[in-house]
Design goal:
It is built from eleven helices and nine strands. By secondary structure, it is α/β, with parallel strands linked by helices. Strands 1, 2, 3, 4, 5, 6, 7, 8 and 9 form a nine-stranded mixed sheet that branches. The relative contact order is 0.17. The protein is elongated.
Length: 365
């Protein structure tokens, strides 16, 4: 085993077990807060300064999508009698869904309870030119049948939800301009049925218990701790930062808040984000594109430097928030499944290779 595969103080399985012990660490919960304090202390024990950044979040997105589904169904039915009414409801619903899924507009969240969460931040300050931020979310999500759906390759559940709303919106537009025929009714009927089917699925998530989150994402946290222990203060061109995000399972709330607060203080030409998520089961890959509606590309230079297999994802990771804000970012991920020590070692090796490549070549040219 090479030197870089060894870590002085961080045992990944122990880190996973200790984080999983904070049972029910969903976004904005007391368990999440206690887990954040634990991670701050772990960073301090490996010789790093760390702090908690409190944030206010509304993580209950399943309720928002329940509302959007109901609005879409009501608008579809109403459009048969009142084209203008149905069109107005579908236009609003489609716009709100797009805003939710891209993180640009979320007024319906105000109908859900506010919760206190926090990000855990550990930085380095020197005269080095760049800043490399290692990221992993430490909260855990809920179970739900929606996540178990077997859809055609390349189609995600949220993508199907959005495009169902959009198709109904287009149908109501045609009704508004005077088109009323059987083919239009059939086309409109199919996505309306899909919205009806989505209601129990979102309701299931809203009522489900919080998962232990060993793989998603205690594995990513453990890997980042190993990397911070190995590379802290050791890079030639980059200060190494650590960002453990809270409320990621509320659709990237912690990372979005952090980059909104600190983005203006950072230079996209010299700041790189490396996110680690769900790496407890292999093989380990890097994400080339991801998005819940339309997939956005990660930074081409980072994709070039990664030596693993790349793939396009219909899910979201925290790197998406950073890339959307205009910063170079990439995610290293594995697969769902039980923790495999070999996968953890592979994730550490893959991230180590990428960190060293970034340090050597990311600022070149």
């Amino acid at each position: 085993m090479t030197e870089r595969l060894l870590s002085r103080e961080v045992d990944p399985q122990r880190e996973i077990d200790e984080l999983v012990a904070f049972d029910g660490r969903g976004p904005g919960t007391d368990a999440e807060r206690r887990a954040a304090v634990h991670l701050k202390q772990r960073l301090e024990r490996i010789g790093r300064r760390a702090e908690l950044e409190p944030i206010q979040v509304r993580p209950n997105y399943p309720v928002v999508f329940l509302i959007l589904a109901i609005l879409g169904i009501v608008g579809s039915v109403l459009s048969v009698r009142s084209a203008l009414g149905g069109f107005a409801i579908l236009a609003a619903s489609t716009l709100l869904a797009l805003g939710e899924l891209t993180g640009t507009l979320a007024p319906l969240r105000r109908l859900t309870p506010m919760r206190a969460s926090q990000n855990v931040v550990s930085g380095e300050q020197s005269d080095k030119e760049g800043r490399l931020v290692l990221m992993a979310h430490y909260d855990s999500g809920r179970s739900g049948r929606l996540y178990d759906l077997r859809l055609p390759r390349g189609i995600g559940a949220f993508q199907l939800f959005f495009w169902s709303l959009f198709v109904i919106f287009v149908c109501t537009f045609f009704r508004l301009v005077g088109l009323h025929n059987l083919p239009l009714t059939v086309v409109q009927f199919i996505p309306t049925v899909l919205l009806i089917a989505s209601i129990p699925l979102f309701g299931d998530i809203a009522l489900a218990s919080t998962l232990p989150g060993a793989n998603d994402n205690a594995s990513g946290v453990a890997t980042v701790l190993r990397l911070a222990d190995r590379y802290g203060g050791a890079l030639q061109n980059f200060d190494l930062w650590v960002l453990f995000t809270g409320a990621e399972e509320g659709l990237l709330l912690g990372s979005r808040d952090w980059i909104k607060r600190h983005g203006k203080q950072l230079d996209p030409a010299t700041t790189v984000f490396l996110n680690v998520d769900t790496v407890g089961a292999g093989p380990i890959r890097h994400v080339t594109k991801e998005g819940l509606v339309v997939r956005s590309s990660f930074h081409p230079r980072l994709i070039e430097l990664a030596e693993t297999e790349g793939y396009e994802s219909h899910a979201l990771t925290d790197a998406y928030a950073m890339r959307s804000a205009g910063f170079p970012a990439i995610s290293i991920v594995g697969f769902d499944g039980d923790i495999d020590p070999a996968a953890l070692d592979e994730a550490f090796a893959v991230c180590s290779q990428l960190i060293e490549a970034i340090d050597e070549r990311a600022l070149a040219g």
